[in-house]
Amino acid sequence: MKTNTISIMIYLFSILLILTSCNQKSKEQLSDEQVLDIVMRSYQYVAMYNVNNKFALAPSGMSTRGWNKGLITTKLFDHTVKAIARPNNDVLYQAAMLDLRKDAAIFELPAMDSKYISAMATAYDHYVNVPMSTIDGDFSEPITILFYSARTEGYNGEAIDGVDRIFEMSGDFVSVVLRVMPHANEKERFDRIVNQIESIKGMTLSEYLGKPKKEINDITFPEYGETDADIFGNNLLEVMQFVFNHTTFDPKEELDNKLLETYKSLGVEPGNTYDPDKVAKIDGKRFREVSLKIKDEELARMNNTEDIKRLIPTLFLPKGHITLESLLLQSVVGPIGLPARQAMYPPVVTNDGNPMNAQNDYVIRMTKEQLPPATAFWSLTLYDTENGFFIPNDHKKYSVGENAGMKLNDEGGIEIYVSVEKPEGVPEENWLPINRKDQGIDIILRVYAPDLEKMKTWAAPKAEKM
After folding, report:
1. How many domains does the chain have?
2. Which of 27, 151, 183, 309 has its CA 20 to 30 A from that of 10?
3. Contact 356/168 with Cβ under 8 angstroms?
4. Average pLDDT of the residues in 380-400
5. In angstroms, rounded to a whole number, what is the distance separating the alpha carbons of residues 165 and 9?
């Protein structure tokens, strides 16, 4: 009896060793090059899963507190906004988070009295669509627009009475963001714009047709992360399986095919149900570390003037018009921006080439001729480099521009100061406060409705250490 017990114990111990060995082997079978490739191809989906789900599901802060809900804002953002890296402080964001599985979504938009407005729609794949913009002559008349996906139940893109435009999205879970220049320095115009914003109406197709709203509480979302690295480290395969099941992939598109091929070998394919026992056992710590390394490298590229000048026109484009290199940069630095025709985002770097740090004060000078060639407006915004958030300050001053405030000098130029204390004689509008500590900081210019021809030769100003 004793011999049998010992034999059984040896047998069970052997099985345990084999299973442990198999698990260890499955973690080690991916080379460094393979892990790097997976992270690079996944980053756009991870970043947008985090962004869209935070906007829709976060219990506090900037959130709609659910899908098929909207968020009307009539004030510029401040440092409490943490849902997205490098938000702006120069337009009024109007956002709606859509679940298009059960029903299409409809928006009735009024004519609006703003120099610049754009409607941007983005699913988990981070391909940016701009179905409406003042650049294209929109928003001068009221318009009704409908959004749906290939999986929307009971709707296949057919015409609907009273609907002016129909737009098919590449995913089921979508952020629709309206950027509205508020003309904050023109009180009467600002008040008109606010009234117009508050008259925007959103509804499901069923509600538009006078039918009951369909329930959408039949789904569970994988946990989103405080940072993108959290997903890479904790639940990458679960998130990607969810994304795959709610995204339209194009069999003719190279990036789609490479992604699907890569994840098939890990046990993740469209239509599967996530089962941790059936997918590959990946080393989350290893994936997290690689994602953080990529993040640091992409942020460092912002100081490479020539590299950024080449890449800026290639960012935030629709599927089929953008490379993996550009998708990676935009997903790390700041998701859901606009394509170059709508806006351009040149960074302000130092004249000595060193990264900016809050241990120093800086000044940025532009003559009248050196101002950004915007046909709508421009702004300059300060962030902490690590998170891409506004720098908290009692003055609630995060950017310089027509809407957040600026004062040109007598010659039509401007001097902008980034400093702990406002230098004597400097207008309050031209001062960006920082806190004296060892903290990386960076500055992004936004040039709305840029003159694309002039942008080819225009150079962003440099920050000089004081």
Report:
1. 2
2. 27
3. no
4. 95
5. 70
In a domain, 108, yes or no: yes
- pLDDT at position 25, please? 38
CA-CA-CA-CA torsion sign (426, 445, 179, 196): positive
Where residue 432 sits, what CATH number does that domain have? 2.60.120.600
Domain end point (choices 191, 208, 225): 208
* Long-range CB pairs of 153-161, under 8 A, 24+ apart, other chains included: 153/101, 153/102, 153/103, 154/103, 155/103, 155/104, 155/205, 160/205, 160/208, 160/209
Question: What is the DSSP secondary structure assignment for residue 350, as one 8-state letter?
Answer: B
- Rounded Cα–Cα distance for residues 411 and 49 (Å): 47
Q: Report if residue 130 sits inside a domain.
A: yes
The per-residue b/e assignment along 175-202, b for 16 or more CB within 10 angstroms, e otherwise, is bbbbbbbbbbeeeeebeebbebbeebeb
Question: Could you say which of 164, 193, 208 is where a domain stops?
Answer: 208
136: DSSP letter: G
Q: In the structure encoding, which two tokens stand for residue 16, read together?
A: 């345990």
| Cα dihedral value 46, 49, 53, 58, nearest 10 | 10
The tens digit of pLDDT for each residue in 22-36 reads 444 345 489 999 999
| Structural domain span for residue 379 | 346-465
Is residue 10 pLDDT above 90, yes or no? Answer: no
Dump the DSSP string for 24-57.
Answer: HHHHHSS-HHHHHHHHHHHHHHHHHHHHHHHHHH
Residue 378 lies in a domain: yes
- Between CA 432 and CA 119 the distance in angstroms is 29
pLDDT in tens, 211-255: 999 999 999 999 999 999 999 999 999 999 999 999 999 989 999
| Tokens describing residue 438 | 């060892």
Contacts of 367 (CB under 8 A, 6+ apart): 411, 412, 413
Is residue 324 domain-resident? no
pTM here? 0.88
Cα–Cα distance between 224 and 304 in angstroms, integer?
Answer: 32
For residue 99, the domain's CATH number is 2.60.40.1610
**Among all chains, which residue has been given the structure tokens 């994602």?**
291
